[in-house]
Amino acid sequence: MNIRSESRVSASNGNPPAGMVWVPDATYLMGSDSHYPEEAPAHPVAVDGFWIDEAPVTNRQFLTFVNSTGHITFAEKKPLAEDYPGADPANLRAGSLVFVPPDHPVQSRDIRQWWVFTRGANWRHPLGRKSSIGNILDHPVVHVAYSDALAFAQWSGKELPTEAEWELAARGGLEATEFAWGDELTPEGRHMANTWQGTFPHENLEEDGFERTSPIKAYPANGYGIYDMIGNVWEWTTDFWTTRHPQPAAKPCCIPKNPRGTDAAGSIDPRQAELHIPRRVLKGGSHLCAPNYCRRYRPAARHAQEIDTTTSHVGFRCVRRPSR
Predict the structure, then answer these.
(1) What is the dihedral of CA 232, 154, 97, 102, to 10 degrees?
(2) In whole angstroms, what is the distance from residue 324 CA to residue 26 CA?
(3) pTM assigned to the model
(4) Cβ(171)–Cβ(160) below 8 Å
């Protein structure tokens, strides 16, 4: 089923910016009633057309940005004691979370069994000090906090997408299908995105050929011509986290247009309320999403991320909105 589009590329304000794809105006059913509770309820939204990066921002592109601006990412900075009251000073070190698979099956879903805070891990050194991006320049940049993604977007004359924009782009013109390409995860045995094969977190069969991130465009584009919207890395959006979507509009005239999640206070994890750190919505899943653990390799799926947290499986892409 196709999403009801209300404009075409001819209405997209001229020639496409380099490396970007036009997503036409559309009204579509955002979210899902069939999966995780935070995706519900499915509800219609209207979104104006916009340009979106055809692929996630790569290490090569981020390197150009850093060389141009001197930007220092969140993971490269030592945390300030006043921002984390009560924290052990020995733990206030520059670094980031790196996925380290256990060598045996695990029973608990305690993420500390596979996420390890690694000193010196950052976008230049994705697995720690001794690693580099020399051979993965065309992979998505990772270990970027929300502020880093925002700084890149502003430097490039773009913005970060809203959750509604991101989900519309990910659907590629399809609606009421589970995945961005249809209703089968691997149609005719073909892997359509970089996800986890095997039993997470200890068994990675690498049937798709990749242990961690993959080069952009390694998988087919969706119906809009956009790559890697699903899997590979989670992507930042501007929306603050909510535990559920709003209820559908009672009347067609009241369908939300260009919605944005703006409640920063409501997005804070109650377990960390004393830190006052808001969470934003991540979309798309990553190479760590597996059928037995995280079936979030779907357009409707969403995940909360603290804006001060960086990991080896979170990146971003940008949008540009035409003047209206």
Answers:
(1) 0
(2) 16
(3) 0.95
(4) no
134-161: pLDDT as tens digits: 999 999 999 999 999 999 999 999 999 9
Return the SS3 of 90. helix
Which residues have CB under 8 Å from 233's CB, separation 6+?
Answer: 56, 140, 142, 213, 284, 286, 287, 313, 314, 315
Residue 302 structure tokens: 């969403």
Q: Which CATH number does the domain housing residue 36 bear?
A: 3.90.1580.10
Q: Are 314 and 97 in contact (CB under 8 A)?
A: no
- What domain range is 302 assigned to? 4-320
Question: CA 98, CA 93: separation in Å to the nearest integer?
Answer: 14
**pLDDT tens digits, residue range 161-186?**
999 999 999 999 999 899 999 999 99
Q: Which two tokens mark 3?
A: 């999403």
Return the structure tokens found at 52: 């979106």
Residue bearing tokens 């006052």: 276
Q: How many CB atoms lie within 10 A of CB 135?
A: 8
Please give the Cα distance from 135 to 215 (Å, whole number): 10
Report the 10 Å Cβ neighbour count for 83.
Answer: 12
Q: Which of 313, 318, 317 is nearest to 121 (CA)?
A: 313
pLDDT tens per residue across span 8-33:
444 455 677 999 999 999 999 999 99
3-state secondary structure of 281: strand
Structure tokens at 152: 């890149």
The count of domains in the chain is 1
